[in-house]
């Protein structure tokens, strides 16, 4: 489960369910969002700056849901195995890690920008600021 950036909407996934439950704290109402893929979900995370919700599945598929527009973007085959971890940065880039020992970086539309193999299954991923020699502040790029 994870709260959106404003702390208004709580998103929850349940084992062996293809529905994402959204609870609005302001109205005390719960709604269900079908992931449309019939895969069991394994990961979810709200964007830090936008209204995007990333949902990963046990088969390595990804759903990006824009809560503001109710648009769902299914991305099949983002990983070859279960998506287990991930993080968003301040520019709405999404990094995901999975049991396939891959890290992917995607934009909010689900397009893969970078992909790299690592030696073991990633966990607890985070973006960070990289200080450059010229003392300019770089974005959360690493």
Automatic annotation (TrEMBL):
GO biological process, one term: intraciliary retrograde transport
WDR19 first beta-propeller domain segment(s): 1-141
Record's keyword terms, sorted: Repeat, WD repeat
Pfam families: Beta-prop_WDR19_1st
Xref: Gene3D superfamilies: YVTN repeat-like/Quinoprotein amine dehydrogenase
InterPro entries linked to this entry: Beta-prop_WDR19_1st, WD40/YVTN_repeat-like_dom_sf, WD40_repeat_dom_sf, WD40_rpt, WDR19/dyf-2
Source organism, top-level taxon: Eukaryota
Protein name per Swiss-Prot or TrEMBL: WDR19 isoform 20
Organism (species): Pan troglodytes
Taxonomic lineage: Eukaryota, Metazoa, Chordata, Craniata, Vertebrata
């Amino acid at each position: 489960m994870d709260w959106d950036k404003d702390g208004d909407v709580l998103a929850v996934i349940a084992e062996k369910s293809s529905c994402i439950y959204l609870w609005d704290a302001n109205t005390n109402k719960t709604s269900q969002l079908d992931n449309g893929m019939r895969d069991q979900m394994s990961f979810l995370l709200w964007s830090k700056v936008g209204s995007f919700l990333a949902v990963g599945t046990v088969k390595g598929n990804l759903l990006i849901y824009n809560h503001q527009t109710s648009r769902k973007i299914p991305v099949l085959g983002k990983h070859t195995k279960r998506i287990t971890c991930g993080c968003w940065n301040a520019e709405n880039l999404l990094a995901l890690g999975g049991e396939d020992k891959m890290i992917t970086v995607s934009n909010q539309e689900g397009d893969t920008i970078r992909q790299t193999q690592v030696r073991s299954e990633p966990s607890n991923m985070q973006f960070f600021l990289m200080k450059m020699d010229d003392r300019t502040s770089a974005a959360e790029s690493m």
